[in-house]
Amino acid sequence: MERARQMEEATTYGVPREVSVDLIDCDVHPYLTHPDELRQYMREPWRSRTIPSRRQIFLPPGDGRRLDAFPEDGSPAGSDPKLLETQVLQGIGADYVVLIPSSSISIIPDPVFAAEVAQAWNDWQIETWLGEYNWHGRFKSSIVIAPQHPERAAREIERLAGHPHLVQILVGSSAQAAYGKRQYHPIWEAAARHNLPAALHVESPVGPTPPSPLGYPTYFLEFHTLYPTIYMTHLVSLIAEGVFEKYPDFKFVFVEGGSAWLAPIMWRMDKDWRGARAEAPWLKRRPSEYLRDHIRFSTQPIEEPENPRHLLQIFEMMEAEHVLMFASDYPHWDFDDPKRAFPRMPKELKRRIFCENARELYNLPATRRADSLDSTPSAAEKQKIMGTGN
Amino acid sequence: MGKLVVGNVSELPPSSRRIVRVNGREIGVFNVKGKYYALRNLCPHQSAPLCLGELTGLAISDEPGEIEWTREGEILRCPWHGWEFDIANGSTIFQSNARVKTYDVQVEKASVARLIEGVETYPVDVENDLVILEY
Question: ipTM > 0.90?
Answer without folding.
Answer: no
